[in-house]
Amino acid sequence: MNKKIKYLSIIPLYGTCILFVYLFILSLKDKISKKNFFKSFILCAIVSAICWYMVMMIVYIVSEKIIHFDFNTVGLILTMIIGGYIINVFTFKYVDAKWNYLSYSSEDEGKSFLGVNKKKIILIGFFLAVVITILAVATIIALELI
C-alpha cells in the first residue's frame, strides 16, 4: 500500500472512510479485484461495528458506574475518538497486510479466498461468536435488564 495513504490513519474514522472510497475507485478502474475488495469491505465493516459497540458500551458503563459524566455529550465524543482510532488501526493494518490479495485477480489464479483461509475463517467465526455472546451479556448486565 502507498505510504501516503497510510497518513490517513491519523484522522479517526474518516481515514477509514477515505481509504475505502479510494479502494472503491481503484476497483472501478480495475486496478484491484472488485470481488476481493467487497469481501474485505464487508469484513472491515463487521469488525468495525463490533469494535464501535464495545467501545460504546465500555464508555457507557464507565459513565454510569465509575466516573459520572453525561454520556450523551462527553461519552459520544469519547466513543467517536477512541472507536475511530481502533477502527483505523484494524482497517489500515488489514488492508496493508492483504494488499496483494486485493491486487490479484481471482481469475488469474486458481486459489479462492475460502480455500486459502478456511481454518482462519472458522477460528474468526468462533471468536466472533464468543465476543458477541460476551457483549450481549455485558449489555444486559449494564442496562440492568436482569
What can you tell me about this protein's structure?
- With 146 residues, this protein is mostly helical.
- The chain is built from seven helices and no strands.
- Helix 2 (14-28) packs parallel to helix 4 (71-97) and helix 3 (34-66) runs parallel beside helix 7.
- The model has no long low-confidence stretch (mean pLDDT 78).
Per-chain topology:
Layout: H1 3-6, H2 14-28, H3 34-66, H4 71-97, H5 99-103, H6 113-116, H7 118-142
Helix pairs in contact: 2-4, 3-4, 3-7
Number of helical elements: 7
Structural class: mainly alpha
Low-confidence stretches: none
Helix content: over 70%
The termini sit apart by 48 Å
Features:
146 residues; flat; mainly alpha
Quick overview:
The protein is built from 7 helices and no strands. The chain is 77% helix and 0% strand.
